[in-house]
Amino acid sequence: MEFSKRVLNMQASPIRKLIPYAEQAKKMGKTVLHLNIGQPDLETPKAFFDYIEKHNPEIISYTHSAGLIELREAFSKYYKDNNIPFTPEEIIVTNGGSEAIIFALGAIADPGDEIIVIEPFYANYKGFAEMINVKLVPVRALPETGYAVPSINEFEAVLSNRTKGIIFSNPSNPTGAVYSEEELKTIVEFAKKHDLYIISDEVYREFTFDGTKHISTMAFGEYNRTIVVDSISKRYSACGARVGVFATKNRELYNQVMKMAQSRLCPPMIAQLGTIGLLEMDKSYIESVYKEYDKRRLAVYEELSKIEGAVFEKPKGAFYVSVKLPVDNSEKFVKWLLTDFSIENTTVMVAPLNGFYATPNTGMQEIRIAYVLNSEKLRFATKILAEAVKVYNNGRVIS
Amino acid sequence: MEFSKRVLNMQASPIRKLIPYAEQAKKMGKTVLHLNIGQPDLETPKAFFDYIEKHNPEIISYTHSAGLIELREAFSKYYKDNNIPFTPEEIIVTNGGSEAIIFALGAIADPGDEIIVIEPFYANYKGFAEMINVKLVPVRALPETGYAVPSINEFEAVLSNRTKGIIFSNPSNPTGAVYSEEELKTIVEFAKKHDLYIISDEVYREFTFDGTKHISTMAFGEYNRTIVVDSISKRYSACGARVGVFATKNRELYNQVMKMAQSRLCPPMIAQLGTIGLLEMDKSYIESVYKEYDKRRLAVYEELSKIEGAVFEKPKGAFYVSVKLPVDNSEKFVKWLLTDFSIENTTVMVAPLNGFYATPNTGMQEIRIAYVLNSEKLRFATKILAEAVKVYNNGRVIS
Fold first, then answer.
1. Residue A150's Cα: distance from chain center in Å?
2. How far is the C-alpha of A244 from the C-alpha of A57, rounded, in Å?
3. Where's the Aminotransferase class I/classII large domain (chains A, B) (predicted)?
4. Are strands A197-201 and A163-169 parallel, antiparallel or unpaired?
């Protein structure tokens, strides 16, 4: 039996494909500190379950395909509190941010059409695009500039008559960059000039540090071309809830996307209820989470700074930092960490960054660290990494 | 701003597009009995919430992309109890049956490839296929034969070098037909002869009446070409949980689909937990639900039989019956029911069947009734329908 080219072309998740090595390490009795996946260790607020219990539905029925109106109202309030003027009628609740991205790509691009993406980018963009035969065309951000938005010339250079839009995440997964007003203007002006959509993935909106502030792409007023993708996964440590958002003020685009939303019926009802509980929580929750991530960020930064030859800037947002390491090949290095290295019988797992690029053989020395463990563990993990770089480079590598 | 052809070609849900007329009727003070959507009125078993409460997770984290192993084990046991030999490693838990169908189509067909479908069919197949640019090629089942599987010649007639598989639901939504061993053999032999995949949607497995028995397509042993699509939505009155299943014994196909599953991370965790509770329930639950639907089925059948000129067979499965009515245009008739007809200030909403066909202008006199209300309400609703047909046909129609 044959398979579709679409699925054959799809790569295995770059984050998940090294898991067998981690499992093997654990079998050998090693402790593995996981900094490879954006799964926070923080408890999900009880408000989630409390709301479900209070509203304990008799029938777990289909909801409106755009999501429960009470939930869309709660999201609308949340956005307005963040100076993003979405009404409930401009919001479609999705199966995580994942589905919001598929909806966005699907509504604006046909097979063979192109979407420009700032690389390195959230690796699953690739899978979503391949699923519906849309081509991602990369514009490269560099570790030497803290992964800043490339110049407009670089965007112009990859434009074609099949380009339909631009997608990026800000704050950035995997780099931890937070885009300035100037940088965002580059993107918005380019999109305006060539009449392109902007898919703005703002999942890490709350996590911007050192006095930087997240600016939503909505702030530029280009309402007809702007799509915001969002998710509660990281903000509330509720990755498994699968509640995301597709939002736009472009009414006709909204109606088109609703056709896709209707065919899959609705997002998960119980998690929708729980999310209302989360959104109704006091702001002090987000503040405490923010402080915790900031502490972790500084811990990782401090330890990373001790690695001679590592290229990176102090991360400003999300809970990631991408680093160019002085190693020959970061995927080989990450495997080696799992198979051949440990301190106090403990090793660390990070994500090789190559899988976050669309350009082949790029980011071969880079890794992504997700700071999703407490500061103490993070310091230890980063020290292991620092020591590992030294050992790996002293020729004591078993390949 | 322009939209993709893919989304422009997508039709609005044929079930949902008449909702504004129903809303208007309610505003005018009419009661509307909804037989238009497969949303059961039965309570979701408390076992769902009990299991969640008992296992009350601290973090709502990502699960395995194929679903929690405990859930896949519970599904495997359920399938084995139904003589369908799926192991946990052959099961991928999905966002409802919807996602399982998208995965199946996506893994076997590229843009422009063709999938044969027995029409009338579950209307959302169309949306899923359009989402990923796959072409549905219909073979028609007729109300006069109780919507039996067409002859092998009819399948042969639509075969092309781009045909990759066949999709159908059994028991059938929207017709209520249950396919015999002979009928299924037609499909399986055709698939074998031309090396096609079979996507067997068995969501209504438990609901077969009058001594008929559901035969899974897996019973024919064509393991490499058989994909089973399933869902807990109807069985447990849990449509909003969004828990479905993609299952196959074809290992390589499974691995290919896992790449799609990994990019969307995981199905909803809380609903996965609840589903374990549902699957662990005593069989007496399904038996009681079965009896209730059987009672309803007989009530609808009895009342429908009183409509002179209506063409249909006694439905044998699922909780639907499709009927050819002696009206000029069933969509017009359904609208008229909502805008111009009532008995005791009550009217009824059913689904025009045209939207369940891929062939244009087909099923123009047919409707689908979902028997998702109690017998008493159903009898009243069907009597309204019977009376409406008479009035509509006596020329007292306001168009």
1. 19
2. 22
3. 31-379
4. parallel
Burial class of residue A376 in the structure, from the number of CB atoms within 10 Å of its CB (0-12 exposed, 13-18 middle, 19+ buried): exposed
C-alpha span between B234 and A102 (Å, rounded): 27
CB contacts of A274 in chain B (<8 Å) are 60, 270
Average pLDDT in chain B: 96
In the β-sheet with B163-169, what is the strand arrangement from edge to edge? Answer: B91-94, B244-248, B226-231, B197-201, B163-169, B114-119, B135-140
Contact across the interface for A240 and B264, Cβ inside 8 Å: no
Q: Which of A54, A136, A254, A264 to mutate to test the interface with B (most CBs of B within 10 A)?
A: A264
* Tens of pLDDT, residues A34-88: 999 899 999 999 999 999 999 989 999 999 999 999 999 999 999 999 999 999 9
Omega prior to B267 cis, within 30 of 0:
no
* Domain chopping of chain B, boundaries: 5-43+284-392, 47-279
| Cβ within 8 Å of residue A225, ≥6 positions away | A165, A191, A192, A195, A196, A197, A198, A250, B1
Find the distance separating the first CA and the last CA of chain A, reported in whole Å.
37
ipTM of the complex: 0.95
- Taking domain B47-279, whether its CATH number is 3.40.640.10 is answered by yes
Give the pLDDT confidence score for residue B149 in this predicted structure: 98
Chain centroid to CA A238: how far? 14
Say which amino acid occupies B242. R
Token pair, residue A41, equals 């260790």
The shortest C-alpha distance from A133 to chain B (Å) reads: 8
- Neighbour tally for B140: CB within 10 Å: 16
A153-179 pLDDT, tens per residue? 999 999 999 999 999 999 999 999 999
Q: Is B275 touching A (CB cutoff 8 A)?
A: no
Helices assigned H by DSSP within chain A? 5-8, 19-27, 47-55, 69-81, 96-108, 124-131, 152-158, 181-193, 251-263, 269-279, 284-304, 330-340, 375-393
Q: State the residue for tokens 């392109």.
A: A196
Verify whether the Cβ–Cβ distance A240 to B274 is below 8 Å. Answer: no
Q: Return residues 286-345 of A near B (CB < 8 Å).
A: none
Residue A263 amino acid letter: S
Q: Is B255 left (phi over 0), alpha (psi -120 to 50) or beta?
A: alpha
DSSP assignment of B320-389 equals EEEEE-SSS-HHHHHHHHHHH--BTTEEEE-EEGGGG-SSTT-STTEEEEE--S-HHHHHHHHHHHHHHH
A12 touches chain B (CB under 8 A): yes
Residues 61-80 of A with CB under 8 A from B: 61-63, 65
Q: CB pairs below 8 Å between A and B: how many?
A: 245
Cα of B351 vs its chain's centroid, Å: 13
Interface contact B142, partner A, CB < 8 A: no
A354/A20 Cα distance (integer angstroms): 18
Amino acid (one-letter) located at A163: T
Number of H helices, E strands in chain A: 13, 12
Closest residue to A260, CB basis, from B42, B131, B260? B131
CB A151 within 8 A of CB B42: no
Mutation target to probe the A interface, by most A beta carbons within 10 A, among B70, B115, B259 is B259
Cβ-based contacts of B64 with chain A (< 8 Å): none
Beta strand pairing call for B163-169 and B197-201: parallel
Give the whole-angstrom CA distance, residue A368 versus residue A145: 16
Instruction: Kindly indicate whether the domain formed by B5-43+284-392 is annotated with CATH number 3.90.1150.10.
Output: yes
Q: How far is A60 from chain B (nearest CA, A)?
A: 5
Q: Provide the pLDDT for residue A397.
A: 44
* Alpha carbon separation from B20 to A251, B41, B73, B290, B332 (Å, rounded): 18, 21, 43, 33, 14
